[in-house]
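Changelog entry

Holo records now carry the ligand SMILES as an explicit input line rather than a separate metadata file. Below, a converted record for adenosine-5'-diphosphate, shown in the new format.
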Amino acid sequence: MIQAKNLKKVYSTEEVETTALNNVNIEIKEGEFVAIMGPSGCGKSTLLNIMGLLDNPSDGEYHFLGHDVSNRTERERAQLRKGNIGFIFQSFNLIDELTVFENVELPLLYLGMSADERKEKAEAALERMSMMHRRNHFPQQLSGGQQQRVAIARAVVANAKLILADEPTGNLDSDHGNEVMKVLAELNEQGTTIVMVTHSPHDADFAMRVIHLFDGHVVTENMQEGFHV
Amino acid sequence: MFRNYLKITFRNLWNNKSYSFINIVGLAFGLASCIIILLYVNNELSYDKHHKKANRIARVASFIDFSGSYLELATTSAPMGPTLRNDYTEVEDMVRFRPRGEFLVRSGDVNIKESDIIFSDPSVFNVFTIPVIHGNAETALLEPYTLALSRSKALKYFGTENVVGKTLLLDDDQTFKITAVYEDMPETSHFNFEFLLSMETNADEANNGVWISNNFRTYLLLKEGTDLKAFEENFKSIKKTYIEPQLIQFTGNTLEDFQEAGNSIEYELQPLTDIHLHSDLVAEFEPNGNIKYVFLFSGLAGFILILACINFMNLSTARSVKRAKEVGIRKTLGSVRKQLVTQFFTESILLCLFSFLIALLIVELTLPFFSNLSGTNLVSNYFSNTNLILSIAGIVLVTGLLSGSYPAVMLSGFQPIKVLKGVLDKGTSRFRSLLVVFQFSVSLVVIIGLLVINKQLNFIQNQSLGFQKEQTVIIHDAYTLDTNLNVYKEELLKEPEFKSATISSYLPVSGFSMNDQTFWPKGDDPVQGNTSSTQVWRVDTDYIPTLGMEIIEGRNFSEDRGADDNTVILNEALANRFGFEEPLGEVITTFTQKPDGSFDTENLREFTVIGIVKNFHFRSLRENIAPLGLFKGTSRGNVIFKIDSQDAGAALSKLENSWKEMAPGQPFSYSFLDERFDRMYRTENRVSNLVFAFSVLIIIIACLGLFGLSAYSAEQRTKEIGIRKVLGASVSGIVSLVSKDFLKLILISFLIAAPVGYFIMQQWLKEFTYKTNIGFDVFLISGIGIVVIASITVSWQSIKAALTNPVKSLKSE
Ligand SMILES: Nc1ncnc2c1ncn2[C@@H]1O[C@H](COP(=O)(O)OP(=O)(O)O)[C@@H](O)[C@H]1O
Ligand SMILES: [Mg+2]
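Structure line, unchanged by the conversion:
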């Protein structure tokens, strides 16, 4: 599903040049659950953003679903993203002015679906995340764990093949964090590919494979012995 | 998708009530002033357009430079119109108007003084579009002693519309037969006649063929496709064919002699639809508008709208950090830039429509007030004119686009990952500062303008006029007292309320008689030059003391009957004009007039100078004081009383009671000299009032914006303020910290606005011959004023922020 060859990402500001990624080679197959770990600032988020087509690499090749997408315009990337990739963030990133239902429905709007279809799918996604009873609430009225479940519902509503999660439990206490991890594991079981950045070894245990990054390099890639459900 | 935008818009509005309030209300006030100004401009521009042949009608104006006096007249001679119609194929028809002052109009017991009454050629109904509702337009004014009147006057005098065949008695001695009733003339017409008297009634003057006296307003209806300028050039030949023979007859000079002596006669054709806004000649029907003020107010409207849009942009960009998150999420979820741009424009246009509805309400509520201020009857007849609807729709759309442009372009350009990380807005804060500086510069320029206009009006009020205008009442139409005139004056003078009184037609304010004659020092040749066109005012011995004029040399006329008949009191301007060093005893000369009004060059009259009166203003202060002579004699137009009492009401009722006794049946009418004087500056007063109203608006809008920005800035800095307070900063220290940045911007605005305002107002003052100076005080007042207003606006928010418990603000991050 994903092939990265010699990926390189350099951020240049007025004075300094930061090499956030250096010669990263990664391949991720459909149905995998991969965790990315590493110290703060080692380039995890940068890698995830490139995988999620939010950013272009400075150098190297990146193939997504068989397309070479190393250097696409924002517009083309947006087109590919829609419906294929779902995002989950540490800070949830729900739109405060929209209700739970409207937030979840949003990706479908950009896909141009009819209202009926949107309603059906968004409600199914909310049902799956056990958030139907909160469909008319605003994000601010929910707990962190609930907000993240809504964010996950939004990520899966369009049947995304790939879900990218950047420290999805970072803002949650351990109980809520566990809940979210179980949901992700479930999704993976149902066939969704998941790539997750995390600091927590406990969370990483849910993944099949852990990639360790250090200073922009892939240090090790471990297959987990057997993972918990 | 659109519904999604709507939802976001309304929830954003609702969740940020104070921002929304500032945005919507600010914009609503901006739009409302724009609409009001648009209605005013539309009204001004629509003058005389209702005449179907308007674009083929032109008025003949005369420019006469004769013996040192230059006159730009809205009138021309009696034969001009008929001659042009007969001699030139370009002229299809013509109509002349000749006013003869006011008339008493009687029907039964109703006897009322009417002023909108004029002699007119019968062709008036052909040239102009004046719908006749009863009677025959083609024959209505052919016969002598026939008249046509407006619908409302017919109702007023007879209580019914169809009054054709009935009669009216004018001035109690002339019976006119009514031959037509016409629709009331619209207010947007440069003339408004209630009565049209047939020109045949005035045939002697209308057909006298005298080319050198100019008393007729003449309108030509030109054939389709006539080039105005070319025709104007073409008909110049009438000067040789018609005017020269009369010049020779009356003055003994050929046209060439006449022109070589520095004199000239020129004619110009004024397109009908240009008259209201572009013509300001002697003897206009009523004071016209001025295209300059149309521009001025259009400019103000534009600025007000821009300021309101700037508020909108400022507040939206200030809040962009928050909206940025939304943009980031939307982009992550697959939105493309175009969709975001659409979303933000939808939002601003929606907001603008919302403001527009409020603006319409404001317009309805304030229109009577502005009608009053502007002295025009403004009505919100949006659908009367497609241009008007289009311009209003255009303004709403442009406002929506303009105010949405910056947020739309800026926000939609955000990189999603950067935004989601929480990007800082360094660049936008500089842009906001720029906008604030612009807003306050404009506000300051307007304030400076307002101060200068007021200063000039005060200057005029307090100008030494050379006469005293206070406590002086003018009783009009004194001649109707007939033989009782002197009795009336003497009887009332016995009352303690009246200090002195004089009888005269001449007064040093506009609206009264003027009488021009040519004089020269005895012994000079009038054709060669040292002549002066001079005001000849016939006054009695009480005139100078009653009006508080000052004799600076010589003496007043003597009381003795028959004495001083051939004497004159010159004003300083006339004495200077003739270069008299010892004016007392000098003799000045003039022609006498023949019974037909033409000059008798054979018989001259001589007057000996017995006194010099200090120059007094008798026209607008826009003009220089012209040469004038006071002559002992009678002119019975008015009795003027100087009141020596605080109770003007009691004095007036005494005047009225005696009037009713001595002039039974005659209407009593009066005015105060100082009010008459103020009326000459009505336009300036109105402009000043309007500019005042709009500058208050501009300041409110600018302050609303500043208020919003400072609120935002305080909110942004709550964490910083909290930390500073924990570390020991005082409330005042924090207030000045937050306010400082804004005050700096205000100071920069002042530095920009001061020279701009100075330059603009210097230009405006050029219109006045007697003018105030734009002093230091103007800048001091405007500068301090704006700093105080801005400080109050800004510190409100900073104090609130400074007083917040730091624990609270630190938790909020
Ligand atoms: N937009 C940016 N501009 C400049 N440097 C950046 C930017 N984003 C990230 N970096 C730098 O790139 C490196 C990797 O960042 P990131 O991928 O966010 O690390 P992680 O997510 O592993 O903590 C860091 O040194 C960070 O400072
Ligand atoms: Mg990170």
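Spot-checked after migration. Chain B has a mean pLDDT of 85. Residues A 11, 13, 18, 20, 38, 40-46; B 418 surround adenosine-5'-diphosphate (ligand 1) (CB under 6 Å).
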